[in-house]
Design a protein that fits this description.
The protein contains six helices and no strands. The termini are far apart. Helix 2 packs across helix 6. 49% of the residues lie in helices and 0% in strands. This is C-type cytochrome.
């Protein structure tokens, strides 16, 4: 019974996030990427490491696994796969979410820009 209650609460909490992502604009997300991410990360299919690892194909990729980038121990040991939900949790405050990461970016706080950026990242496949 407690398990069912927990699952019901989690589903209720996840629904607004799923709806927000569904209404996100990948075109706006591309502009956010250019303004916020593009200085350090490539979005090209065969893009290499700039300052950070390339973000083409990041959704669905195991964290800390791009060859040629010297990840922190925190990221190497994170043990998760980047999903839209994980990006929603990480990008507003990367160093709070995963202490010890090398990324110095303070975070993307605007929820609309965040949704659009993640929608854009999902198109990079």
């Amino acid at each position: 019974m407690a398990r069912l209650l927990i699952l019901t609460v989690l589903a209720a909490l996840a629904a607004p996030l799923a709806q927000a992502v569904a209404g996100a604009d990948p075109g706006q997300g591309r502009a956010v990427f250019a303004a916020q991410c593009g200085v350090c990360h490539s979005n090209a299919r065969s893009g290499g490491v700039i300052v950070g690892p390339p973000l083409y194909g990041v959704v669905g990729r195991k964290a800390g696994t791009v060859a040629g980038f010297d990840y922190s121990q925190a990221m190497k040991g994170a043990g998760f796969v980047w999903t839209p939900d994980r990006l929603h949790a990480y990008l507003p405050a990367p160093r709070d979410y995963l202490p010890g990461v090398k990324m110095t970016y303070a975070g993307l706080k605007d929820p609309n820009k965040l949704d659009s950026l993640i929608a854009y990242l999902q198109t990079l496949r």
